[in-house]
Amino acid sequence: MQIDKLRGEQLDQLFDAILSLKDREECYRFFDDIATMSEIQSISQRLQVAKMLTDGNTYSAIEKETKASTATISRVRRCINYGSDGYQMVLERISEKE
Q1: How far lies 41's CA from each of 13, 46, 54, 67, 68, in Å?
Q2: What is the DSSP letter of 35?
């Protein structure tokens, strides 16, 4: 995993903070303080790209709907195919809740 390069006390503290959030409103409040609008938008865009890719959408349809660059779409595709299965894990969990 690429993130292993960052693994340590600081990242553990961040993840523990995220895991302590109780609901969506707390997420909004925390992420408003901890990240820029651009960072939040980029992360949410990548998740939407991942969902659309796993749903079988074409790059052009994804680009049109999400405004993501083809480089971002390709990077997300690479993570889906060769990554740590993080996208698949959360997308399945979100799907189960719906």
Answers
A1: 23, 9, 20, 11, 11
A2: S
C-alpha to C-alpha distance for 17 and 5, rounded to whole angstroms:
20
Helices (H), the chain: 9-19, 24-34, 37-54, 59-66, 70-82, 86-97
How much is the pTM? Answer: 0.90
For residue range 2-51, list pLDDT tens digits in order: 888 899 999 999 999 999 999 999 999 999 999 999 999 999 999 999 99
Structure tokens at 49: 């790209």
Burial class (CB in 10 A: 0-12, 13-18, 19+), 55: exposed
6, 11, 56, 74, 96 from 52: Cα distances, Å: 29, 29, 6, 12, 17
Cβ atoms of 38 and 67 within 8 Å: the answer is no
